[in-house]
Write a structure and sequence with these properties.
alpha/beta; Fumarate Reductase Iron-sulfur Protein, Chain B, domain 2; Rossmann fold; five-stranded mixed sheet; four-stranded parallel sheet; 51% helix
Length: 410
């Protein structure tokens, strides 16, 4: 309740809210949503399907937290209220609970994702994907069409293999780093995990990537499935019980959730775990990396849970500027949500597509040939939006550019 009372309804947050900018509705702004949440907490209104719909439309990007002069913890308030709505089984008629439940039953479970990959490889490699897209066969099925359009190129079997232990290879010894491999990242962007380990090793870290680690629970947290989230969080903490000096995340949404384990679990072990978590850019920014020339023009998109959730903005830019020959151009509205927001772009495809289009327009204005972003969902979302606009740009994680420039000793 104290967090809800901290809001003074000044409205400074309104221009920073993606849904308010698109819809122009007070109840779809941070101020309006806080009013609804406080009224429900005070017992002045009930938790209704209409209230749930206004919260469903929120991306949880936390841009309002950055703008707020009163320090309102909007993200945790939203997730707690969604938890109450979920426990009471309140549903908006417009909400797509079927798609959400399917995604939450698939993405966070490595065994299920691994079983799906061969079919996806066959779909892409056989030419079926080109046929489906060319003939527009999914046109009548909006959400299925959205899922297919977001699908990145599925890596080949055994590509970018990540060892459980990567020895330190260069730089002054810095200790032992535990690497979070994630869910989407480990299957669709395994090269990013391998490159992360390679960069950490070059910076002087011994890297441990426990094979038994599962999902961090971020998707369940954002959806209000708090019991499932806490169970996943406890299992992940247990998988990193070895002696590590830092726990490294390279996916913004995951890193933000990890840093808040102490708050949600109220457990000393979880709090100690959270204190060790850092984004990869926070770890590498002080490292002495031997980087060669990379003559490309790059723009950087702030992943919401990195910029607003973790307050990490300067470090990724500083690392990119350190690459000789790389020209970094600023992106207008770089910290406005691109529409990815976990699985938001799959359950709210209309709003997500509009936000993706706006981001792609800003990218086109930069003239950059490469866009860097520190979250796999953002990479998928912007890739799709740029293709829809006819932009020939490459969307990559910042560590991929650092890895291209890295010059290691034999």
């Amino acid at each position: 309740m104290e967090g809800l009372r901290a809001c003074v309804h000044c409205g400074i947050c309104l221009p920073q809210c993606p849904t308010y900018r698109v819809l122009g509705e007070e109840m779809d702004s941070p101020r309006g949503r806080i009013y609804l949440m406080r009224a429900a907490a005070d017992g002045r209104i009930a938790l209704t399907p209409t209230l749930a719909r206004h919260l469903d439309l929120c991306l949880g990007c936390r841009g309002c937290e950055t703008a707020c002069p009163s320090g309102v913890p909007f993200g945790s308030l939203l997730e707690a209220t969604r938890g109450q709505i979920e426990r009471r089984g309140i549903r908006s008629p417009e909400s797509d609970q079927g798609t959400l439940s399917l995604l939450l039953a698939l993405f966070p479970y490595p065994d299920r994702m691994a079983a799906l990959l061969p079919a996806l490889r066959l779909y892409q490699g056989s030419g079926l994907q080109a046929l489906v897209r060319g003939l527009g066969l999914l046109a009548p099925f909006r959400r299925l069409r959205t899922m297919e359009a977001l699908l990145p190129r599925v890596p080949g079997v055994g590509s970018a293999r990540l060892e459980e232990l990567t020895p330190a290879r260069g730089g002054k010894p810095r200790g032992r780093a535990g690497l979070l491999v994630g869910c989407v990242q480990r299957f669709f962007y395994p090269d990013v995990n391998a490159q992360t380990a390679r960069l950490l090793a070059a910076a002087g870290y011994e890297v441990v990537a426990p094979r038994e680690q599962g999902c961090c629970g971020a998707l369940h947290l954002h959806s209000g499935r708090l019991d499932d989230f806490r169970a996943m969080a406890k299992q992940l903490v247990a998988s990193f019980r070895g002696d590590v000096d830092v726990i490294v995340a390279n996916a913004a949404g995951c890193g933000s959730a990890l840093k808040e384990y102490g708050h949600w679990l109220q457990d000393p072990e979880a709090e100690a775990f959270s204190q060790k978590v850092k984004d990869i850019s926070e770890v590498l920014v002080d490292a002495d990396l031997p980087l060669g020339e990379l003559p490309v023009t790059v723009t950087y998109q702030d992943a919401c849970h990195l910029a607003h959730g973790q307050k990490v903005r300067a470090e990724p830019r500083a690392l990119l500027r350190r690459i000789p020959g790389l020209k970094l151009v600023e992106l207008a509205e770089s910290d406005l949500c691109c529409g990815s927001a976990g699985v938001y772009n799959l359950v709210e495809p209309g709003m997500a597509a509009e936000l993706g289009r706006r981001t792609a327009e800003r990218i086109r204005e930069t003239g950059a040939s490469i866009v860097a972003a520190g979250n796999p969902g953002c990479i998928m979302q912007m890739d799709r939006a740029c293709r829809a606009l006819g932009l020939n740009v490459e969307i990559v994680h910042p560590v991929s550019l650092l890895a291209r420039a890295l010059r290691e000793a034999p």
